[in-house]
Amino acid sequence: MQAVFALLFIFLVVAWTLSLYLVWDGTAADEVKASGFLQSWKQQAIWVLPFLMLLVWAIYRLVYAALIGPLLKITHSMKHVISSQYPALGRDRDHLSPGLKLLQQYFVRLKQLTKHDPLTGLNNRVIFEERLQQSVLEGRRSGRKYALVFIDIDDFHSVNHDCGPYIGDGLLRQLARRLSNGLRESDTLARLEEDNFALLLEYSDEDRLTSLVGKIYQYLTRSYTVYGRKVKIGVSVGVALYPDHGQDAEALALKADVALLASQKGDWPVEFYKPSSGEAESSVFSLVQSLVQALEKSEFKLVFQPVMDLKSHNTSYFEALLRWKDPEQHDHPIERTIDLAEKNQLIKPLTNWIIESACQQLQQLAHSRVKIAVNLSMIDLHDKQLPQRIEQTLQQSGVSASQLLIEITEGQIMQEPEKVIGILNHLSDMGISLLIDDFGTGQASLTYLRKLPVAKIKIDQSFVKDMVSNEEDSTIVEATIRLAHTLGIEVVAEGVESSEIHDMLINMGCDYVQGYYISHPLEHDQIINWCDQQQALTAS
Ligand code: C2E
Ligand code: MG
Ligand code: MG
User: Fold this and answer.
1) Does residue 120 fall inside a structural domain?
2) Which of 134, 273, 408, 457 could cross-link to 259 by cystine, CB 3.0-4.6 Å?
3) pLDDT tens by residue, 179-195
């Protein structure tokens, strides 16, 4: 840019010299002419050149302030945005040279960014939704039929977790490539988010469509070699058809979502939307909606169920259980809500809220002996940031880690015990106790559990409830207690509903009990009362 102004300066000097020469040539007397034009030029240049320089500098400053400065700023901010998505561009030169070319290049990239997914180069959600709307309109006019296909990688977070995000990204790119292979020009493919892809296919024959979707499924589930590493994945596929299953883009997307959910839950990895699941669909949709809203408007609360120490007769800890504040508006069991939160990437904010609320409760109680257990889902244990977040929450609330327990169900932990051992050890090193919930329903052997930092197991209520009448159950409970003790693990029995069961468990040497016989879950303001009563009882 400075070169332009140097040229302007030279141009002005030349122009001035020329005009000076013309004037001088016409007016100068012969004796002056004899002394030469150069002499006269030198005399005047002493003040003209600085003036011209000053003029050019003033113009430069003006243009810089009004145009170049803002342009450079825009370029730099664009570069910042783009280089985070296209690292190769980050190496571009930092100044505006060569001219506005770089700016133009950035504009092109920015335009791409608004339409494309930078990782895979596929369309993004915005474009896909636009195309879906257009296709539905086109379908209405011309009677064309479309299939909306949602594809989701099963358990993608474990690929990221096991192989690292670099391999995870490579896998997504390869999957995108496989999906794009063989697509017709009229088909639309997009990556909606993380591991969710969508296809919009025009079709005429349903049988051929079914076989095509089947082939896509098989192609996608063949093993991948990503940066030399073999990766095998499963995918779930949900399909909804226009116009059979939905008359507009939103209805169609909702139905493809319902089909995808069915494929994730059911035995078939590829599911076409079934009109008979209409009820399920509206309930799934409204549940997810109310879940999002509940998190935003804090419509949840925690209730606290005491767990009694059978030897000291004190409350060992309270288990925090999630509830809707207004259950009349939500008639779904809490387990279903948690299940949906897990499937819709909502479990992380939900768990954060639960841990924060439990710590707040401990802070309010301001009693170092009170402990609270929170239930975690397996997805939480895949989150490497979890220990750090818990630590922060503990620090902010001034609560000691030893006051916090974590319950995780046996079934969940046995899905991938090797993968979570690191995070469990980390939590245990922080001083947080780990408890295996619903013990007996998974596939764990007690000996295996010793490899994990497990302080307690909680025998599932299905064994405890019928202990009095069912000899098999009582034998299992007794044997579990004995074996756990020989391994140095304490035992909680849940679902204790009667004095008979309570007494049987005492005789079996069980350490702790929880259940309606002791107490139903308490509201947060009932805990202090409960603790006071307990203290009075043990004192008397
Ligand atoms: P869980 O952790 O095994 O919790 C025990 C469940 O048994 C609770 O049901 C509790 O209310 C119920 N219960 C307690 N005592 C008795 C009894 O004597 N008899 C009977 N019949 N039931 C009893 P809830 O609150 O509906 O929770 C169900 C499950 O949902 C929990 O099982 C846990 O797996 C999950 N859950 C609850 N709250 C949370 C949470 O905050 N986060 C996560 N990730 N999961 C949660
Ligand atoms: Mg529990
Ligand atoms: Mg349980």
Assistant:
1) no
2) 273
3) 998 788 889 999 998 89
Is it the case that residue 105 has pLDDT exceeding 70?
no
By residue range, what is the domain housing residue 84?
2-115
Measure 460 CA to ligand 3 centroid, in angstroms: 6
437 ligand 1 Cβ < 6 A: yes
Question: 80 alpha carbon to ligand 3 midpoint, in Å?
Answer: 49
> Which pLDDT tens digit goes with each residue over 144-159?
999 999 999 998 888 8
Cα(145)–Cα(244) distance, integer angstroms: 9
139 lines ligand 1 (CB under 6 A): no
* 148 vs 284: CA distance, rounded Å: 19
Among candidate residues 274, 290, 311, the one where a domain is terminated: 274
300 and 268 in a common domain = no
- Verify that 215 and 307 share a domain, yes or no: no
The residue among 66, 83, 115 that closes a domain is: 115
Work out the pLDDT band at 107, boundaries 50, 70, 90. Answer: low
255 alpha carbon – ligand 1 mean position (Å): 31
499-508 and 471-486 are packed helices; what angle lies between their axes, rounded to 10 degrees?
40
- Average pLDDT of every residue of the chain: 85
If one residue of 375, 460, 498 were mutated to test the ligand 1 pocket, choosing by the most ligand atoms within 8 A of its CB, it would be: 375
The pLDDT of residue 149 is 96
The total number of structural domains in the chain stands at 3
CB atoms within 10 A of CB 45: 16
CATH, residue 132: 3.30.70.270
Task: For ligand 3, an ion, list residues with CB under 5 A.
Answer: 437-438
Q: What is the pTM of this model?
A: 0.57
